[in-house]
Amino acid sequence: MNREDILRQAQSEGKGKDYADIEAQKSGTRVAYYVAVLLVIIVDIVNGFVMGYVNRGMDFVLFTMAFVAFLTKYIKLRKRHELIVAIMWGLLAIMMLVLWILQLCGVMR
After folding, report:
1. 2: how many CB neighbours lie within 10 A of its CB?
2. Residues in contact with 64: Cβ distance below 8 Å, sequence separation at least 6, in sequence order
3. What's the pTM value of the predicted model, to 2 decimals?
4. Does residue 10 sit within a domain?
5. DSSP conformation class of 12
6. Phi (first) and psi of residue 17, to 5 degrees
7. Which of 3, 5, 25, 53 keeps 20 to 30 A from 35, CA to CA?
8. In a domain, 47, yes or no
9. Does 12 map to a domain?
10. In angstroms, rounded to a whole number, what is the distance separating the alpha carbons of residues 18 and 16?
11. Tens digit of pLDDT per residue, the chain (109 long)?
């Protein structure tokens, strides 16, 4: 395969993809995740001072987001490290779900 064939093949594979747009979307998603984390921390702190307890439902949502992000990364990359981190986030998410349900039932505050 000569240089022109390789170039032609690379161009045909990239049709319809704007890499700048893809990178902007990735960057936007990353920033949105950090803003969500910051907002959950602020809401937890305010709830703690005003209500006297922290709503674990918000933490459940946050940990589930992290779980899904790392699980998706593992599925795409097949790196064992990503799976281990995903499992840890998943366990934390399940723990927050249980605590939130206990809060809703009035068992704990």
Report:
1. 7
2. 93
3. 0.73
4. no
5. H
6. -110, 125
7. 53
8. yes
9. no
10. 7
11. 677 777 777 666 666 667 778 888 888 988 999 999 999 999 999 999 999 989 999 999 999 999 999 999 999 999 999 999 999 999 999 999 999 999 999 998 7
HEC-encoded secondary structure of 34-92 = HHHHHHHHHHHHHHHHHCCCCCHHHHHHHHHHHHHHHHHHHHHHCCHHHHHHHHHHHHH
DSSP for residue 104: H
Inter-helix orientation angle 56-77/80-104, to 10°: 160
Residue 94 identity (one-letter amino acid): I
Domain interval for residue 87? 17-104
Report the 10 Å Cβ neighbour count for 8.
12
Q: Which of 35, 39, 66 has the alpha carbon at shortest distance from 55?
A: 39
Query: Does any domain span residue 6?
Result: no
Distance of CA 106 to the CA centre of its chain: 29
Cα torsion 52, 49, 46, 34 to 10°: value is: -90
